Amino acid sequence: MSATQRPIDRWFASYSGDHRSATNQWIHVACVPAILWSVIALLWCVPSPGTWFRAGFWAGIAMFGAWMFYYRASRKLGVGMLVAFVALGWLTRWLHDSLGTTNLLWLAIAVFVVAWIGQFVGHKIEGRKPSFLTDLTYLLIGPAWVLAKLYRKLGWSY
Predict the structure, then answer these.
(1) How many CB atoms lie within 10 A of CB 16?
(2) How many structural domains comprise the chain?
(3) Is residue 54 part of a domain?
(4) For residues 105 and 59, what is the distance between their CA atoms, to the nearest angstrom?
């Protein structure tokens, strides 16, 4: 690795080392966004304090914090993750308004469990342990890694 390499490139290189199998990569492309949405939806269901805040307050705080991490790592990835967070926030709000808190909670739990099972199946196929078991930061790197794959497919830099 070059000394001028950005930290996000080092994170991606390490993460990619644990995700070499094409099958595991495809599983991650499906499951990582599902897990990201399910975490947003789970946080959406946490009651908001007082009367000044609406449902989704905690999800918004978490999305903002994660967005700051992505934006500092790469402005282009930060913009992409902002778009993703806005879309996931709108989807979650719509589902919350349509289904109610309890049904959204159960849906989020189901998606979370199924997507994590998918992740572990992918790593079983890969023969490598999940990256986050060595450093929890990889839980944030996964969504950016999936977005960076999309950027490369579109011929965009990150």
Answers:
(1) 14
(2) 1
(3) yes
(4) 13
